Amino acid sequence: MDKNVRKLRSKDINPCIEESDGSQKCLDANNYDKNMCSAYFLRYKNCRKYWHNLMVNRRRDGVKPDMPTAEERQEILAAIGGKPY
Question: Per-residue pLDDT for 60 more than 70?
Answer without folding.
Answer: yes
